[in-house]
Amino acid sequence: MESGESRSSSSGRHIVYKDSSWFSQFRNGSNPWMARYVYALIFLVATLLAWAARDYGRSALTEMERLKGCEGEKDCLGAEGVLRVSLGCFTFFITMCLSTTGSSKLGEPRDSWHSGWWSVKIPVWISLTIIPFLLPSAIIQLYANVVPDLFFLAGGFAHFGAGVFLLIQLISIIKFIMWLNDCCHPEKCAERCQIHVMLLATTAYVVCLAGIILMYIWYAPEPSCLLNIFFVTWTLVLLQFMTSVSLHPKVSAGILSPGLMGLYVVFICCEPTGGSCIRKAEATDKTDWLTIISFVVAVLAMVIATFSTGIDSKCFQLRTDDVQAEDDDVPYGYGFFHFVFATGAMYFAMLLIGWNTHHAMRKWTIDVGWTSTWVRIVNEWLAVCVYLWMLVSPIIWKNRHAAEST
């Protein structure tokens, strides 16, 4: 009887989703699917506030005396403005993460808190965005530069959080590529579908090769640009290596997944740096419409990536038991969703300051400089390693189990 009541209550809840207006659902907090868009909007506004603090914060904040002792760096105030907004956004989402972790059923208090209570949460977010601007500069430097003892990599707490975000995003993307490849496997696909797979894979490889050729033209115009030549050439080698492993008879993963992975790694490597080694360097000395469009696209891509990764908590479940989902289960992991946005707050800070608190960033630029370049390159290499491990690990475990059984 209780089960029947629960299901009918859940069905009624779904009816509320369909029949109620978006404003009504927003006000009543009855739709967690709609709530995620509100959180994404909050994240986008925080990102734009951080950008405004970086590019226009000097003129707006010069009267705040406590912000002037920023180690005497020319652009430190702009970097600090980004970090202050990032700290406020991180605090909001990590608080939401801690308060919603463990929520499993619709209608329970943590579900209501996640999906509703906007009249409380929005003022809290605004307050948490303002409070960091009242804190001494030393606290902001702690957020940016202090590394926990467990981590030996250079950087700070915000650097580490941004790295965690990149790792989560990387695994989510690779899982999606592997899932798409499995769906298009020849044994599960009709002949017409196989043609579509071949066209998609061929297009992916053509785009990859075109991107590599353009990188040679734009970022390695002279033989002296050895590092940029190495980055681009190594990307081509990795593309070939991924394809060879995927087509190996023991793996037989097809050509679609390495083609899609090639698009990802070429995208990551799409902008090496190095002053005179960039053919368009002279054109980028001043802000033009292309720079502004690139900035807007990069910001939107980052927000969309954070949003899509946040609802992909199933990719990170250690257990994959086939448990049938019930009607009143939450549609995605709330705690993981907010954790991704919390680390994403650190990530947008690193992009806007070039992963370096003392790096001068021009207006309307994002993720530029040698530090950013090395972060992208390491992320590219790590992505290839994770992808190859996902290909060969089933074979390794299978051989190990066979050896143990004999």
Automatic annotation (TrEMBL):
The chain crosses the membrane at residues 37-54, 81-101, 122-144, 150-174, 195-220, 226-247, 289-311, 331-353, 374-397. It comes from Quercus lobata. It comes from the Eukaryota. It is found in: Membrane. It is a multi-pass membrane protein. This is Serine incorporator. Belongs to the TDE1 family. PANTHER family: OS01G0179800 PROTEIN (PTHR10383:SF63), SERINE INCORPORATOR (PTHR10383). One of its GO terms (cellular component) is membrane. The keyword Endoplasmic reticulum does not apply.
